[in-house]
Specification:
The complex is a heterodimer of chains A (352) and B (535).
Chain A: H1 2-24, E1 30-36, H2 41-45, H3 47-57, E2 59-65, H4 70-73, E3 81-83, H5 87-96, E4 102-116, H6 117-125, E5 129-132, E6 135-139, H7 140-149, H8 176-189, H9 200-212, H10 221-231, E7 238-242, H11 243-252, H12 254-260, E8 264-270, E9 274-281, H13 284-293, H14 296-304, H15 340-351
Parallel strand pairs in A: 1-2, 1-3, 6-8
Antiparallel strand pairs in A: 3-9, 4-7, 4-8, 4-9, 5-6
Helix pairs in contact in A: 3-14, 7-8, 8-9, 9-15, 11-12
Chain B: H1 3-21, E1 34-37, E2 42-48, H2 56-65, E3 68-74, H3 77-85, E4 93-95, H4 99-105, E5 111-116, E6 120-127, H5 128-133, H6 143-151, E7 157-160, H7 166-179, H8 188-192, H9 194-204, E8 207-211, H10 214-223, E9 228-232, H11 233-245, E10 251-254, E11 261-263, E12 266-270, H12 275-289, H13 291-299, H14 337-351, E13 355-362, H15 370-383, H16 385-390, E14 400-406, E15 410-416, H17 421-433, H18 442-454, E16 462-469, H19 477-487, E17 493-497, H20 504-512, E18 517-519, H21 524-534
Parallel strand pairs in B: 2-3, 2-4, 7-8, 13-14, 13-16, 16-17, 17-18
Antiparallel strand pairs in B: 1-3, 4-12, 5-12, 6-9, 6-10, 6-11, 14-15
Classes of the chains: A alpha/beta (352), B alpha/beta (535).
């Protein structure tokens, strides 16, 4: 009798153990890979992000870095998603490949200018940049006029810097931030009116000249930003990149930010354009990844640790958490990008 | 399992073991361009610019304290770009002198976690007394000021090959920009300008000696008696430390304000989906970026970090050497990738100082079989222009090529001048028809080579003797020294080893003539690229 009870006890214990194992065992994590714009690497490498994705959704997002436009044309064998930084990439996808299984805007961030205080001050004195409530704004009409005139840094009181006034961007034919800046400059050169597939031809010569003067261009905004940080004011007087990059840098590298933050500044082009980071699902796993990324907890990590405006968490008003001066709570003065057809004309012209 | 199969597996295992046993702890494998540090743990194979040879003590300190093996393979940064383009799986990480070579080479987006490890501008280091007499001390100097001195013959300099190394390519692009009247950025149209073509060809005549990568240039410079070199500020600093220590005159650093470029020494990981390797890489990268190691890098003359030079290292960057860390370094804009590649092709095909190469080919009995085959393959690679152009080693028609076939005596000789494609093909056919036999005397062959050189104005060429041999020779080194001294010129004698090679005698010759010994059995293409970098 006694042995019977012992036997039953063992059976129950075993069953509890088995059930416990199935209930409590870590959820199997399904790794998926896709192409990612370099500016979002910080988010995908974030430990909190990774564990949230794994625990809640059983997903691990692996990636290969690629420019937003490049990735549409890259070899997509085995890839589950594309995560470019713009809707232009989505439009390109639609026109070259067709309608994707699913696509959603996951994150937003405006295109901004980064520079050093000495450059900002000179730009302010020469009337190109103005300040309101501690935030700085670049008058894009005046800026494009100065570029057309071929003004040099020396002309605005910076003889230490070699060459003419410029903004370094990523390659507009390969990467999104450069592509958006091309759209923005085209609008500015068009008298502040969004260019269309007809009016664009009036600005193409000046636009081409502007980009050809840049010479070699990086293909990733992450590389461009880190070059800007490390190489100093002489090599990178001013760049165009995403707002989230400086916010992320200040959060993830607080010690370095303490040392260099005082010299770096953010200038909002007026008007500016918004970068909408769209995820394009290439298979069912990519489809599921979109749901995961839209989760409020994930969106909260994206804003607080990486500076992406999300539009859902409502936390955009808390800009002071970053300790970066002059960050706008709300970005107004946003202009639409030229449409896809027009951007295609611009890219083709700049590719030649 | 058949007996043959067991034997072949055993042989393979033995080979594997013997290759593992090579220099497992910081030793160099013969004279190849590899160093290995540490043992066990993950293996990180890094392909790196030779300027990072100076960082080896720091790498060793890391592998001593961590379970990881780091294998460094050195080559010029332009060659690193070529490796990336060829989709290599031989390396886990790249560490060229400038980011541009990663972004131009990484077509498949395999490189990630790229971080700049330090900065150093490409500068002219000129003997201080000469810099003073040319009026370069304490002045703002333009690239055209420097070029005027080169044209007048007052300044001769050493630089690395523009088609192999970042510092050479940077200086060359700076020259092109200066000669084109400092356009905002150099274009294809500029490169077509016939005046520019003439000017740059004239300017490159001022190159004394060349090398395939920057650290090797420094070594060469310190062994010889040259006036100036184009190199990284950091390597000029460490050269000066050595020059001063031995009581020689230091170099004065000139930063051409309209032709400056900056090396940012980026270290990036080549993704292969191996998580452990990636972790090992990131740990090593973090070590290099730690404050302690960044300070150590400053001690080697590198600029690091966001805040400039730490107080403790201010003394490394000496004002009396012209070094100025306060000034803003405003580099010129690099042209587009397309323009850069075209400029490099033009350098190789047309602009660079033509080489005068004397190939001494060993056809003695000991070379019979694989040695002979190796030599023939090698010469085919360099003389067949289709093959040569794949390696950016195509011949310049102004070049002169001589071949001396030897065993214990001179079997035959052949010389082509100018080196048209037809003439190169004929020469190649002649080599392919030669067969091996008899004793060996490399000295006799080299002496014959020196005699040929007597009849040329050597200022117009980059002369070199290139020995393709197994290295075991009768005859006397002293006889060669007498002939060499009599000629009284700076002629490097490179050796490429084949067959059952023994480098002892070859090393002696290379040291004496400030050249190097390469192993043609390991990687023929890179051996040739190295030789041609010097010539």
């Amino acid at each position: 009798m006694k042995t019977k009870w012992i036997g039953l006890g063992i059976l129950i214990l075993t069953m509890v153990a088995i059930i416990g194992y199935f209930v409590l065992r870590p959820r199997p994590v399904d790794p998926i890979i896709g192409y990612l714009g370099g500016e979002k690497i910080g988010l995908l490498e974030d430990e909190e992000f990774k564990s949230e994705m794994a625990d809640k959704f059983g997903l691990e997002l692996l990636y290969k870095k690629a420019g937003s436009l490049d990735m549409v044309r890259a070899d997509k064998t085995g890839m589950s998603y594309l995560f470019p930084a713009s809707q232009t990439a989505l439009e390109l996808y639609k026109s070259e490949i067709g309608s994707p299984m699913r696509s959603e805007i996951i994150l937003n961030t405006p295109l901004v200018l980064y520079t050093h205080t000495m450059v900002r001050d000179s730009l302010q004195q020469s009337g190109l940049v103005s300040e309101t409530n501690g935030s700085y704004f670049m008058d894009m009409d005046k800026f494009s006029a100065a570029v057309k005139e071929g003004k040099t840094w020396a002309d605005i009181g910076l003889p230490e810097l070699y060459g003419s006034i410029s903004v370094k961007t990523t390659d507009p034919t390969k990467s999104n931030s450069g592509n958006m800046f091309a759209g923005l400059m085209a609008n500015a050169m068009n008298g502040g009116v969004v260019v269309d597939s007809e009016s664009v031809y009036n600005v193409l010569p000046d636009l081409k000249e502007f980009f050809s003067r840049m010479g070699y261009m990086d293909t990733s905004s992450a590389d461009l930003f880190s070059q800007f940080l490390k190489m100093g004011v002489g090599a990178y007087p001013m760049i165009a990149a995403y707002e989230n990059q400086i916010l992320e840098f200040a959060v993830t590298q607080p010690d370095t930010w303490q040392k260099v933050g005082h010299d770096l500044c953010i200038i909002y082009p007026t008007p500016t354009v918004y970068s909408s980071h769209v995820m394009i699902a290439l298979d069912i796993k990519g489809y599921e990844a979109i749901d995961a990324l839209m989760d409020p907890a994930i969106q909260d990590i994206a804003w607080k640790s990486h500076g992406f405006r999300t539009g859902i968490s409502g936390s955009q008003t808390e800009t002071e958490i970053f300790g970066v001066d002059g960050v706008l709570t709300q970005v107004t003065g946003v202009m639409p990008m030229p449409d896809f057809k027009t951007m295609d004309i611009i890219v083709k012209e700049l590719s030649n | 399992m058949s007996r043959m199969r067991i034997i072949s597996i055993l042989v393979a295992l033995m080979l594997l073991l013997s290759s593992c046993a090579f220099g497992s702890d910081g030793g160099k494998k013969s004279d190849s361009n590899k160093s290995r540090f540490g043992s066990g743990g993950e293996l990180l194979r890094i392909v790196s610019g030779s300027e990072n040879i100076e960082l080896e003590p720091l790498i060793k300190a890391y592998t001593d304290n961590n379970k990881v093996t780091i294998e460094m393979t050195y080559m010029g940064s332009v060659d690193i770009m070529r490796q990336l383009k060829s989709n290599t799986s031989e390396y886990d990480a790249v560490w060229p002198a400038s980011s541009i070579w990663i972004s131009m080479g990484d077509k498949d987006f395999r490189v990630k976690h790229t971080e700049s490890t330090s900065l150093s501008p490409v500068v002219f280091g000129i003997k201080k007394s000469l810099a003073e007499s040319m009026g370069f001390v304490g002045k703002r100097v333009s690239i055209n000021d420097i070029m005027a001195k080169i044209k007048s013959g007052e300044l001769k300099f050493c630089m690395t090959s523009a088609t192999q190394s970042n510092s050479g390519a940077s200086a060359y692009l700076g020259f092109l920009s200066g000669l084109s009247g400092n356009p905002e950025v150099l274009t294809m149209d500029d490169l077509q300008n016939s005046k520019l073509r003439e000017d740059i060809t004239g300017l490159l005549q001022g190159v004394d000696r060349s090398s395939g990568s920057s650290e090797w240039l420094k070594t060469l410079f310190l062994q010889g008696d040259y006036d100036a070199m184009v190199n990284y500020e950091s390597l000029i600093i460490t050269s000066n430390q050595e020059l001063v220590a031995r009581g020689d005159e230091p170099l004065y650093v000139v930063y051409p304000y309209d032709g400056l470029s900056i090396s940012d020494s980026p270290l990036g990981y080549i993704d292969c989906g191996n998580q452990k390797k990636e972790e090992a890489f990131l740990n090593f990268q973090n070590y290099l970026l730690s404050e302690k190691v960044q300070s150590d890098l400053q001690k080697l003359g590198r600029r690091t970090g966001f805040e400039g030079v730490f107080d403790e290292n201010k003394g490394v960057f000496k004002g009396e050497w012209g070094i100025d860390t306060e000034r803003i370094l405003s580099p010129i804009k690099l042209p587009t990738a397309e323009v850069i590649m075209e400029a490099l092709n033009l350098y190789q095909r047309e602009f660079r100082k033509p080489s005068l190469s004397i190939y001494c080919l060993d056809f003695s009995g000991s070379m019979y079989g694989k040695g002979e085959r190796g030599v023939k393959e090698a010469m085919d690679l360099i003389l067949d222009q289709t093959k040569a152009s794949e390696l950016l080693l195509q011949s310049n028609p102004r070049e002169i090529n001589q071949v001396i076939f030897f065993n214990s005596g001179i079997i035959d000789t052949a010389i082509i001048d100018p080196s048209t494609e037809e003439a190169l093909n004929e020469l190649n056919a002649k080599i392919q028809a030669q067969s091996a036999g008899g004793g060996t005397d490399i000295y006799k062959a080299m002496i014959r080579g020196l005699e040929t050189l007597k009849s040329y104005d050597l200022d117009q060429y980059n002369p070199a003797i290139i020995l393709l041999t197994d290295g075991v020779s009768a005859g006397y080194f002293e006889d060669f020294i007498i002939a060499y001294e009599e000629l009284g010129q700076d002629i490097p004698v490179f050796s490429i080893m084949f067959g059952d090679a023994d480098p002892t005698q070859l090393k002696e010759i290379a040291d004496y003539t400030r050249a190097r010994v390469f192993d043609g059995r390991e990687d023929l293409a890179s051996a040739f690229r190295s030789v041609k970098g010097y010539n």
